[in-house]
Amino acid sequence: MLENMENLNFAQRYQKILQEITEAAHQAGRDPQEIRILPVSKNHPVSSIQEAIDAGIRFFGENRVQEAKKKAELLGPDIRWSIIGPLQSNKAKYIARFAHEFQALDNIETAKILDERLHKEGRTLSVMLQINSSDEPQKSGIHPRQAKEYIQELQGLNNLHLTGLMTIAINSADEKLVADCFARTRSLRDSLLPFLAPGQKLDQLSMGMSNDYKIAIAQGSTCIRVGTALFGARSYDV
Ligand SMILES: *Cc1c(COP(=O)(O)O)cnc(C)c1O
Fold this sequence. Notes:
Layout: H1 10-27, E1 36-39, H2 46-54, E2 59-62, H3 65-75, E3 80-83, H4 92-98, E4 101-105, H5 108-121, E5 125-131, H6 147-154, E6 160-167, H7 175-192, E7 204-207, H8 213-218, E8 223-226, H9 228-231
Parallel strand pairs: 1-8, 2-3, 3-4, 4-5, 5-6, 6-7
Helix pairs in contact: 4-5
This protein binds pyridoxal-5'-phosphate.
């Protein structure tokens, strides 16, 4: 798939992925409108993001706070940012100022600091709990069995609006193993619904990246995070 996308410009790649989402959704008996693409611009220069902006995109995913902050300053307030990578508590103040979403919440102490910082800024932030659905020890995210406790802890943090769960599947050629990670996350979500407080939601399932988004859509994803298939291979010296 990625090979034959190389000659396309951003708008063409985007259209192609939209089409594939539509097909994957229909195959799964789902409405394609339920699924958003979050273009992941990490390790790509502002010039590439500008090409996406010209194609109508206004919301980007970044996994490093410093890099996102720099880009946010350059591109101005019309562009929104979703942080999808781990957050150190000393960076919470930056996120609180410019980000609109944080998908990788996996630490309650950091959540508390983030909530205080948001309060100071007079802002709120949509957050997703990151679930380690593959049970790989090196992976970010909380273990599924911790999720209920996290949701209860978040109930006191009024500047963080819980919207869903995020996961990164196992990196495997075995599609069954990948699908299992997504299915586990979705059934965890279903099991958590009775424990939500008013204002808390778990409508969002952020699942799927360039290599596995079709599998994720079949398993109920509502947000696919696509980097390489939209922007090409990453350059690591932005
Ligand atoms: C980099 C990244 C992506 C995008 O990965 P691609 O394989 O390039 O689509 C998605 N999610 C997270 C959390 C990432 O860090």
